[in-house]
Sequence to fold (122 residues):
Amino acid sequence: MRFAFRLTALLCLCVFTLLTQSCAKDINNKEAVKEAVLKRLESVSGLNLANMDVDITSVSFSGNSADAKVAFKAKGSGEAMLNMSYKLERKGDLWEVKSSSGGMGGASQLPAGHPPAAGGQK
Fold:
């Protein structure tokens, strides 16, 4: 009886572990990173994102951190106005921007309302 109880408890623990792991949200994708970048921009700038195309050009994931390259373009234009790098950290089922750095793309100045692009700002 004691063995059967332990076996049942062990099986329940295994099933619970499998269920919780399979229900975890997969956020290792460009869409989740873009959501974090846009959230950051909305909170720290008056940038009119409706007039811009934001393209995650590359992203790499390593455990609970990610590094992303992002190009900002005026809507309808093919040329990047600004290229930024973002360092992100996983917070539960979301990414959170920890720092950014970047430089100009094909333009000579930042888009109106964009936060400063100095390296390492939080």
